[in-house]
Amino acid sequence: MRTPRAWQLLATLAIVLAGGLWFPQVGSAHLDLVETTPAEGAALTEPVDQVVLRFTVPGEPAGPGIRILDGKGETLDATVRRSDDGTVFVARPATPLEGGRFGVAWRVAAPDAHPISGGFTFTVEAATPVAPPQDAAPAAPAPAEGGGTPAAATSSDGDPLAAALESPDDRGAKILSGFARALAYGGGLIAVGGLAFLAFAAVGGRREVAGLFATVRLAGLVALGGALMGVVARAWLIDGDGPDAIASTNALGDALRGEAGLGLILTAAGGLAIAAGARMAHRRAPNVAIAAGSWDAYRPQRIVAGSISNSWLAVGGAIGIALGAALDGHTASEGPRALVWGADLLHFTAAGVWLGGIALLVALLVGRRRAGRHANAAYTAVRFATLAGAGSALAGLAGVVLAVIILPSFSALWESSWGLLLLAKVAVVALVAAMGAHNHFRLIPRLAARLDAAERASHVGGDDTERGAPAPSSEPTAGAVATVLRAEEQTAATHSPDQDDVARSLRRNAAAELVLLAVVVAITAALVGTSAV
């Protein structure tokens, strides 16, 4: 088992960068109000029988929806209709508006489930009264319907209409939504990557492998909890009426509507499926994995390789979580939809293989250190290095594609909150990649050389190796120990690294990478809830 050469890694990075440079750019499609009739601040001479609002992308009323207010800030009876394409809303008052100052308050949810609010005012002159007879005393002016003479103040101080038009304070809901996303993404990524790690890289004592399955189940529960918290946060956001929305059945029901609601449902169902369906299974540990380590400290525990043969429900749950992530955030309103969804799925799954694998590798190595056992990291680390390399490259490629699609211009990288968050994420990922490169080119080759020596020794051993290979669920025999000794002799001919030092360095680096990737997850949670415009 040999590690990829440097030129292969550089070629992969070149392909990723070339794909980002050559991919066609598509404009952003974030929901914004672009036109109203009457216009903001308009002074009209004719009664108004309808108010029209036009948005950039389809949306639907959220919480109180679209309301027409009189000068006292009170809601007038009106019907609201939406155009077939969902971008235009027409509000018709029960009686035409005349003789006063009026306002329109609106709260609309985009396909990405982030409602936006706003309001504007306009005035309508009162109908001209019939002139009184010349000999009649002048009549006192009647107060204008809806609040009389337009107020000059634009502040809400002493102006009930301005106060009614103020947007609700969504800060608490947004904080809760970001925290929920961090939990759902973090748990989902570890669960997805953990299943891949168990299927392709995990080798250890039977109790160790069982512990890794328990870690995956716990990650599923975290994803489930994040999704449920996300439902509460979305209900709060959509309703716009503060924490009281949490107790509203209608608000909670609205939170489960649309693509974002479906994404939350898929994430919750996926987390539950992983928590219930990640069942312990194992298979025969490969000969080279047994030969490349000293497993005496595990007696009488069995040395096995992980298997997901009993975890197909959990695999289905991992697919559900990935689909749920693809339906969340501002990318849900971007196009072309098939490309965006595909890139989102690839980005989440590949990142999960990377982050989740590191999480389980750290859990494995730290557990062995605490138990005072030899790390036996060679086979697992080299196998995971292949997974991590593929995962990081594919995640980078998908990330470049998504950035090109979402960013309206290159300058948006430093002119928008989304772009600044993206730069911060790229900086942290670059640091993680640098640490991974150190592992890949300095530590993994030592462990790979140990595996190569063990593999050559197993071929020299011939029948002894076959006799020494552990049967399923059995411990190494004398033949396997002899194979280890032959492997040590051949390894010493090329290099003689201190395997404990290598394992210690690998454990420290992997733990640091895990912490940094947790920061990446937190930035991603904020990034998903931020607009690129």
Strand order of the largest sheet: 1-3-6-5
Mean pLDDT, to the nearest integer, reads 76
The helix count comes to: 15
Q: Tell me roughly what share of residues is in helical segments.
A: 55-70%
Biggest sheet overview? 4 strands, antiparallel
N-C termini distance: 48 Å
The fraction of residues in strands falls at 5-15%
Instruction: Give the topology string: H per helix, E per strand.
Output: HEEEEEEEEHHEHHHEHEHHHHHHHH
Query: What global shape is seen?
Result: elongated
**How many beta-strand segments?**
11
Low-confidence stretches: 1-29, 136-155, 461-497
How would you classify the helix and strand content by structural class? alpha+beta
Radius of gyration: 31 Å
Which terms summarize this structure?
single chain; 533 residues; alpha+beta; 4-stranded mixed β-sheet; 11 strands
Description:
The protein is elongated, with a radius of gyration of 31 Å. Residues 1-29, 136-155 and 461-497 have low confidence and may be disordered. It contains 15 helices and eleven strands. The chain has 533 residues and is of the alpha+beta class. The two termini are 48 Å apart. α3 runs antiparallel to α4 and α10 (378-406) packs antiparallel against α12 (417-461). Strands 1-3-6-5 form a four-stranded antiparallel beta sheet, with no helix packed on it. Strands 2-8-7-4 form a four-stranded mixed beta sheet. A hairpin with a 5-residue loop joins β5 and β6 (88-93). It is 56% helix and 12% strand.
Brief summary:
This protein has helices spanning 6-22, 160-165, 171-200, 206-239, 249-255, 258-277, 287-291, 312-326, 337-370, 378-406, 412-415, 417-461, 463-468, 478-494, 499-528; strands spanning 33-37, 43-44, 51-55, 60-69, 78-82, 88-93, 100-109, 116-124, 203-205, 282-284, 303-306. The protein has 533 residues and is an alpha+beta fold. A hairpin with a 5-residue loop joins strand 5 and strand 6.
